[in-house]
Amino acid sequence: MIKNLDLTALRSFVAVAETGGVTRAAGQLHLTQSAVSMQLKRLEESLGQSLLDRSGRSIALTAQGELLLSYGRRLLALNDEVWRRMTNEVYEGELVLGVPHDIVYPHIPGVLKKFAAAYPRVKINLVSSFTNDLKRLFATGEADLILTTENRPEAEAIRLAEVDFVWMGAPNGIAWKTRPLRLAYEKKCIFRPIAQKALDDVGIPWEMAVESDSAMTVEASLSADMAVHACLRGTLRYLEEIDHRDTLPKMPAMQINMMVAPHSNAPLAQELADMIRAAYLTDKPLLNSEMSTGGLSRRSA
């Protein structure tokens, strides 16, 4: 009697093996954890083999699981190829891109327009949030790509750029001269403790004049010369860099990094990652330099 493998269960098994856990696999597959666990159990029962070693703190593959993973990748790749070819869905899919709100400009709008021109049937969900929140989404498989602003990124992160970290305030403002120095930040901003520590290290007293969940509230307060703010150069459009003549501490440069989830809609995710990397390599906004050109190629240089 001929028996057939359950490809849905096989896809869940491969996702668990490649992401390292049921939670990430569930996020990647847009399923509940219980659904993924049930599919794994059904697959093991149908084959009469134990595929996962659950004795340790993390999930590992048994010898039979390693063998099935090799076959499973090939079977799923062939299944997906047949489906795309027969249904003309070569470039369909959905990607979740997470970007800290302060680095959406200048590159991301142009990259997204370029990607949409190359893949008009691919849906991109842009999530703008804080670096720590985006890393949590990435860890649970809810984001395919994220950008981060941090100097100690994960080992798999790709460094895109290094940007000066400077003090910003209102044009012709005087808030930077006050003591205690009045600061304005969002509550979850990763730059907030960096600025506070830099001031502590040089003995400059400070106080939080404005703390909010809204970036617009913080920017409005800074524009009103109520406080100052250390951030990436060029990311606050209505403010100016403070010429404090070394009366404020010099801030360390900050890295912009990118993380791409392994095997999450891999070809499309890698294509978008290539475009983002190319935009940072050119060190110029795609919004102005490429959005007006016609006939954009599918792959970046």
Any overview of this molecule?
The structure is a single chain. The chain is an alpha/beta fold and 301 residues long. The chain folds into three domains: 7-87, Winged helix-like DNA-binding domain superfamily/Winged helix DNA-binding domain (Arc Repressor Mutant, subunit A, Orthogonal Bundle), CATH 1.10.10; 93-163 and 255-289, 3-Layer(aba) Sandwich (D-Maltodextrin-Binding Protein, domain 2), CATH 3.40.190; 165-252, D-Maltodextrin-Binding Protein, domain 2 (3-Layer(aba) Sandwich). It is 40% helix and 21% strand. The chain has helices at residues 7-19, 22-29, 33-47, 63-87, 108-118, 131-139, 192-201, 215-223, 266-282, 286-289, and strands at 52-53, 60-61, 93-100, 122-129, 145-149, 158-163, 165-169, 181-186, 206-212, 229-232, 240-241, 254-260. The strands form four sheets. A five-stranded mixed sheet has the order 4-3-5-12-6, with helices on both faces. Strand 1 (52-53) and strand 2 (60-61) form a beta hairpin. Helix 1 crosses helix 2. The model is unreliable at 284-301 (pLDDT under 50).
